[in-house]
Amino acid sequence: MRKPIIAGNWKMNNTIAEAQKLIGELKPLVADAAAEVVICVPYTAIQKAAELTAGSNIAVGAENVAWADKGAFTGEISAAMLKEVGATYVIIGHSERRQMFGETDETVRARTAQALKNGLKPIVCVGELLSERESGKTEEVVRRQTEGAFAGLTAADMENVVIAYEPVWAIGTGKTATAEQANETIAYIRSVVKNMFGAQVANALRIQYGGSMNPANATALMAQPDIDGGLIGGASLKAEDFAKVVKY
Ligand code: PEP
């Protein structure tokens, strides 16, 4: 029912020339993938990535979007600008942005609403810190982040949303949540969405796992009933590894 979606998050990696090489390698490897394939790339590489993937089964996304249409927001990129260069998805509220760049539940909400208003599909990240998991606050944290991100949206808006559950302690650390741990929290997030928007929206919503997902653990994670895909950092930078995750 829910089409799996595997998205790469390149973070601050790959110049245009490097993007060209990686996409050239990736395209044939994922051409017959059953899952939806997305690569979220640095702003400077979006246009080239969109050109190179045109007509293929790879969609291109950005890694953030401004909450305003235009104006005095030095360093920000608007949804219209992203659409103009060919982005269709956008990651919002990644833990690196929450931790290092002051992103809050409120800015995540505003960016998500802006993406949707402009026809970009947001991949909204939620997830707890290690200290929060260890003190039994995982559910409280992901509930606050989920309710915060989607406040004020409609059921129709939610059709275009993807959530990425990324326990912060598993990102880039080589530590993965067990498949059962990931599924348990994702099922909880789905229940929060159900409380907000009803069962139909919750059952249709795709929720990814993210955090050191790689070719070795993708099969077990994707076998879980509530895990509908992955947001892949490190392993998305090598075509062969990313393709193996895509084909889990
Ligand atoms: C991420 O950046 O969203 C991520 C999950 O990174 P990694 O796969 O490297 O842990």
How do the helices and strands line up, and which of them pair or pack?
Layout: E1 5-9, H1 16-30, E2 36-40, H2 43-53, E3 58-62, H3 79-84, E4 89-92, H4 95-100, H5 105-117, E5 121-126, H6 130-134, H7 138-150, H8 155-158, E6 162-165, H9 179-197, H10 199-204, E7 206-210, H11 218-222, E8 229-232, H12 239-246
Parallel strand pairs: 1-2, 1-8, 2-3, 3-4, 4-5, 5-6, 6-7, 7-8
Helix pairs in contact: 1-2, 1-12, 5-7, 7-9
Phosphoenolpyruvate binds next to strand 8.
In short:
The chain has 248 residues and is α/β, with parallel strands linked by helices. It has helices at residues 16-30, 43-53, 79-84, 95-100, 105-117, 130-134, 138-150, 155-158, 179-197, 199-204, 218-222, 239-246, and strands at residues 5-9, 36-40, 58-62, 89-92, 121-126, 162-165, 206-210, 229-232. Helix 1 (16-30) packs parallel to helix 2, helix 1 (16-30) runs parallel beside helix 12 (239-246) and helix 7 (138-150) crosses helix 9.
Notable traits:
single chain; 248 residues; alpha/beta; eight-stranded parallel beta barrel; 12 helices; 8 strands; 15% strand; globular; binds phosphoenolpyruvate
- The number of helical elements comes to 12
Taking all residues together, what is the mean pLDDT?
Answer: 97
Main β-sheet, in a few words?
Answer: 8 strands, parallel, barrel
Number of strands: 8
Which cofactors or ions or other ligands sit in this model? phosphoenolpyruvate
**Which value, in Å, is the CA radius of gyration?**
17 Å
Overall geometry? globular
Span between termini: 18 Å
- The run of helices and strands is EHEHEHEHHEHHHEHHEHEH
Q: Which residues sit in consecutive blocks of at least 5 with pLDDT less than 50?
A: none
